[in-house]
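#onboarding

Welcome to the new folks! Below is a worked example of what a typical request in this channel looks like: someone posts a single protein sequence, and someone else replies with the predicted structure as tokens. Don't worry about understanding the tokens yet, we'll cover that in week two.

Example request:
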Amino acid sequence: MHKNENNKDNLKNIRFILGVVSGKGGVGKSTVAANLSRVYQKQGLKVGVLDADIYGPSMDTLFEDAALPTVQGDRVIPAQVEGIALMSVAYFHKGREANVIRAPIANQIILQFLHEVEWGALDLLIVDFPPGTGDIQITLMQQAPFSGVVIVTTPQNLSLIDVRKAAQMCSQMGVPLIGVIENMSYFRDPQTGKTHRLFGEGAGEKLAREFHIPLLSQVPLDPALQQKKHASKAFEEGAEKIFQNLEDEKVREINTEDPYHFSIKWLDGKKSLYRLSDLQRHCPCVKCSKNRENVRVHPETELMQLVRVGRYGLQLTFNKGCSEGIYPFSLLRDLDR
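Example response:
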């Protein structure tokens, strides 16, 4: 059984760490995180949820009647609810007034939640990221060995502005993008059965295409989802795809053929050969993605270093041109179709 390799503390006893990210508030990210955890718990997995939104925690509302966290020596025992281990700053804050906390203190709280909470042996720890792309998000990705992140958006194209930034941040930090969940995708009239796209459509598919990741599910706008007994059903399909991605090993072998080429042998037996100069045309870094027509390609580009970034992709260092991008295996496979 695969486990994250982290010698700092008991995070090493967690098999997978999954981030739920949006970059934008109001898209239902916390609802997605909560209901994914319910799906996995019902499937028999040992699950924990870390509410990393220091300024606007909501997990205490989404999970009611939790047995509160306790302190044992220098360790904190997380709250327990519905068979799920849960940690949120809401449990240590009186009332619902605003959390006025400076960034260095917020970062320290995140570090304590990661390294001083007795999470125990978990199959999956789900981290509900705060909106934005600031210090807390960077601290999380530097301090925890994420197996991957799920990007949450709504169907509105307007939401893509911030959500895209969050996805780019994850890519730059070398955290695998597993897929997109589009929340509040549609409303189905219970009387007529007719589907209404109240917030437009297409943002989830557009984001998935842009980052070469799958659209995992489209979750409806449904009042019944606010009821615990119904909520998880809408997330079962996406949850299955996420966990399959976490467990899947896509690449069997990577070889440097000569200074100008390398090859990948995939698990399905297919072998792909890549010329470095051709690959540079598709550099996925933010700068090259925005100015694709101005990307300079050097015919005699050589490979200085090849580093595998988990099960996500490859970090390639060239002797010429841009070496900032992390090339997802999904992109590399698409380039050889």
